[in-house]
Design goal:
7 helices; Dipeptidase E; 12 strands; about 20% strand; Peptidase_S51; alpha/beta; about 240 residues; eight-stranded mixed sheet; four-stranded mixed sheet; Rossmann fold
Amino acid sequence: MNIHPNYRILAASTSTIHGSGYLEYILEEAVEFLNASEILFIPYARPSGLSYEEYTLAPQKAFAQKGVEVRGIHEFENPKAAIQNAQAIFVGGGNTFLLVKTLYELDLMETLKTVVANGTPYMGSSAGSNLTGMTIGTTNDMPIVYPPSFDALGFLPFNINPHYLDPDPNSTHKGETREMRIQEFHHFNDQAVLGLREGSWLEVQNGEINLKGSLTARLFEKGKSPIEIAPGQVIF
């Protein structure tokens, strides 16, 4: 399946892995990939209880270590113009439903599609990575708000399931596994789903999607057995 040749996308499962600070595990790669002196941060998925200003402090502190400035989109009077003029864009994690609802309400979805198709680098983590898929139907978040559509940006020809967890054979929990939930999704939907484990990310450029990090990812396609994608392997 063809990927837009102008896409430059870094889609990470998470912003923070166990035992390290915010973006610490991916910061070097992110700075090199985004190749910008200033990054526009979109905090609309903000974790519960944080203001946009408080949330933006996290990427500001992280990227400042590499001499890169971060400005929150809420600082601009015209958010659409801020996206159009951005050197690079970073969409943070939090609640995917809240993120998508806000972007639709502010009429920013098409603007994001346009600038990324024109070559503006895009980075997402968690909810921001969910946004790169076809829909948000495989997010792990609770639907705390009701967006007008589940349609995402559609940069990737599949959905992402961030924070993908394998079944724990020693767990006493008898509820659904993540794999079972994705199989339920496929009873009603056709989109492929990539289970992205913590510390892994996708790098999209030159018309290819590559898995990065040290772990495999699990690819689910309707009517097929899941397969493991190795780091460095081209997906689709």
